[in-house]
Amino acid sequence: MLLVTDLDGTLLTSQKTISPRTRQALVEFRQRGGLLAACSARPVSSMVRLLQQQQVDKLFAWCAGFNGGQILEMTSQHMIHTATLSCMALREIDQSLSCYPHHFFSADAIYHRDDRLVAPWTTYEANLFELPFISAAPEYIFNQHDIYKITLVAEQSKVNALCTAMNNELPYGYMATITGGNYIDIQRTEINKGYAINMLRQQLNIATEQVTAIGDQQNDISMFTAANIGIAMGNAPDAVKQHASYVTASNDDEGIVCALEWLRCFAHPVTMRQSTTLAENNEPD
Q1: How far apart are CA 39 and CA 49, in angstroms?
Q2: CA–CA gap between residue 151 and residue 141 (Å, rounded)
Q3: Which residue, 121, 144, 182, 148, is CA-closest to 65?
Q4: What angle do CA 15, 237, 65 make, to 5 degrees?
Q5: Which of 38, 77, 130, 198 ranks highest by number of CB atoms within 10 Å?
Q6: Whether pLDDT at 278 is above 90
Q7: In 60-109, which ranges are E strands?
């Protein structure tokens, strides 16, 4: 089985750590022959650094960053897929976002227009992902050839309506997707986490039936669609849970551990039932 997991709000607690029980559950999953891939809106560089800090990087075979815009094979450290925005797209999308705070992601930096105020959510992402924050002239940014996505930021109460509005205003071929409480990512329409799963399936030559995805945000819904089983975290919005096959506990209640145990029962119902029956039969009268 290939298990594809989101990071923030899923594998990570709200303190941005992986609990010891979750780490052990991942180790046991790998020992049973399972394969692990991480898929996030984060840049791949931030994902790898985080997995190393949490001492689980050796367990993961792939990291798909920027919602599938970058896919790294962990063992070889070879980038097997990249999907950047064209210079023309940067200009067109920026025009659509003229009234809203936003920033631009390259593989190794966050860019911000020097003629606009910096929103606190932009500063937060730069610090969280440990990326250089570069304030530059618009023309300089538009001429970069390694921009993977543009992130629109807003108050959480306005994000849903703003995402809908943006999808009515963006140029053809581009899509806005909510990736967090204050964040909307804009990328090429075909680039999403489900796309990343399909890329990995092709590389492994496996069927959809062998893929499970776990996530908590709207950008994870495409993973649920591309996988055989989609598992939503307990902390996910109801709109995300509605697309899932199963809802586990929250990220602060070791939802990954619960999900992996549920998957074991789901994959081996007879074995698990026999084990339960045997235990019941051996109970003292």
Answers
A1: 14
A2: 14
A3: 148
A4: 60
A5: 38
A6: no
A7: 62-65, 70-73, 78-82, 102-106
Buried b (16+ CB within 10 A) or exposed e, 31-69: eeebbbbbbbbbbbbbbbebbeebebbebbbbbbbbbbb
Q: Contact at 8 Å (CB) between 150 and 103?
A: yes
Provide the 8-state DSSP code for 84: P
Q: Which pLDDT does position 98 carry in this prediction?
A: 84
Share in percent of the chain as helix, strand, coil (round to 5): 45, 25, 30
Q: Phi, psi at residue 11, to the nearest 5°?
A: -70, -35
Query: 256: closest CA among 198, 33, 264, 133?
Result: 264
d(CA 243, CA 222): 9
Residue 153 corresponds to which tokens in the numbers above? Answer: 């930021």
Residues 6+ apart with CB under 8 A from 15: none
Neighbours of 123 (CB within 10 A): 14
What's the predicted TM-score (pTM) here? Answer: 0.90
> Does residue 232 contact residue 255 with C-beta atoms inside 8 Å?
no
99 band by pLDDT with thresholds 50, 70 and 90: confident
Q: From the centroid of its chain, how far is CA 60?
A: 14
Dist CA 21 CA 252 (whole Å): 12
Q: H or E element: which one contains 4?
A: strand 2-5
Q: What is the Cα Rg of the chain in Å?
A: 20
